[in-house]
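queue> holo job accepted (0O2)
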Amino acid sequence: MFEAANEDKMYMEMLMSNVNKDTLEWAQRRGMDAQCLMTYYNCAMREVETKFRVLDEEFSLLNDRNPISSIKTRLKSVPSIVEKLERRGWEVSLTTIEREINDIAGVRVICSFTQDVYKMADALLAQDDITLVAYKDYIKHPKPNGYRSLHLIVEVPIFLEKQKRKMKVEIQLRTISMDCWASLEHQLRYKKGKHLPEMTEQELLTCAKLSMELDERMEKLRKETNI
Ligand code: 0O2
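queue> job finished
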């Protein structure tokens, strides 16, 4: 009994250590409800992360290789939540946050091969506690700038002492090559502002095509090697 209570305390401390400083300050100002909401998102994010880690382990046991190269998680910062609400003309309240913002909890799953992306997504969506809210396939249909990834918004239940709550989590699944392009493109855009010179946009598009070709060739090798 003592051990269980201690474990709960350690678990809550671990969760709160993952909530960033801005979030905590905002939560303190807005009271316990806000703090709870951000903690729920953090719990949901961890649930989804764990689900992918379990899938990766099982796959590795059966196939002797890991379909997932790495997993990154992030909780949206309060300034970007508020900025998003304001940009869209929505009232800044806990209700609108929960109803309108789908990407407070984000999980990015970096896979080895393109086929692994779909395999991991399908395996997650087949789980009976996961509800699909939105599915955007930017791999089959890349964005005009060349961005590729598979985006899912899912609802996952978190089990609290007296209630079960369904929380939304944004999942981005991509290959190592897609992640490399997106991370570097993000840095260039972040440094230079949203609008890059036409030549830079064209060069990024060329790089995106190279990245796509690399994925296709690696996928061909995977099939030939039969792994
Ligand atoms: P961050 O910091 O990564 O979270 P919304 O999510 O509601 O704003 P939308 O258009 O429905 O709007 O979302 P979409 O297209 O599914 O993409 C959202 C996220 O995907 C972005 O989040 C990025 O992480 C990633 N993304 C989408 N397009 C691009 C792109 O062209 N380049 C890069 N590098 N990433 C992209 P945030 O909120 O912009 O940023």
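queue> Helices lie at 2-17, 21-30, 32-63, 78-87, 94-100, 114-125, 176-192, 198-225.
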